[in-house]
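User: I'm putting together a small comparison set for a docking exercise, and I want a reference complex before I start. The sequence is below, and the ligand is adenosine-5'-diphosphate. Could you produce the 3D structure with the ligand included, as structure tokens?
Assistant: Of course. I'll restate your input first, then give the structure tokens for the complex.
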Amino acid sequence: MIELKDIDVIFSNDDKVVTAVKDVNITVDRGEIFGIVGYSGAGKSTLVRTINLLQPPTQGTVTVNGQEMQKLSKKELRGARKKIGMIFQHFNLMDSRTIFDNVAFPLKGSGLSKDEVAHKVAELLDLVGLEEKTDNYPSQLSGGQKQRVAIARALANDPDVLLCDEATSALDPKTTSSILDLLRKLNEQLGLTIVIITHEMSVVKDLCHRVAVMEDGHVLEQGSIVDMFTNP
Ligand code: ADP
Ligand code: ADP
């Protein structure tokens, strides 16, 4: 489903050069929940942003759904990115727009009629349990509800993959666990492949099938949760 091969990401600003990601090889299978863990500054976010080329790698190849991302034209890349949803720590909702408009936003230019958009948004809000909030604004919602809206928006174009960048880091433990339940349900019911960055071990243990541990831009170790957390 996702293959990151020999990935390096090097930032050069003025006279300062930072190697954020070095020699990373990761394969994520279809339907898998793959965790990326490590301390702040390890390169997790940079690495995950190479998957949709939000951060083009300096070296290496990114393949998603059998397509080598760097070989796509601008138009093809726009299409490929629609099939890769993303959510963030701070939700990134449009505060001056309703929940309906936030979720409908990625459907602009999709060719769907107004009724079809309304139907799709209702279906998405139902999926995340927020049908009744359609006319509210983000400021009227709790953190967990905002993240549910962000998830609904990320799923608007029926992606195959959901990238989660510290998606529960701004949430309390109880809300975190309800968001993890939702992600698990999406994985099981839709077959959604999920890549989740986290610094919380509980997230890894409760949710992920496999995990890569990053430090200083490298993958130190990767494997199944059972292998990594079972003491012999
Ligand atoms: P993590 O997600 O694990 O906290 P990041 O991927 O955000 O790590 O950062 C990895 C390293 O790359 C850090 O040293 C960070 O300062 C650096 N970095 C990230 N983005 C940029 C950028 N746009 N320009 C320069 N350095 C960057
Ligand atoms: P725009 O003119 O901004 O492109 P539209 O004319 O498509 O927007 O829709 C007008 C407004 O109607 C939208 O901003 C949206 O908030 C609202 N709307 C449409 N359908 C629904 C619905 N089922 N539930 C809530 N609001 C809706």
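Residues 11, 13, 18, 20, 38, 40-46 surround adenosine-5'-diphosphate (ligand 1) (CB under 6 Å). The mean pLDDT is 94.
User: Thanks, that's exactly what I needed.
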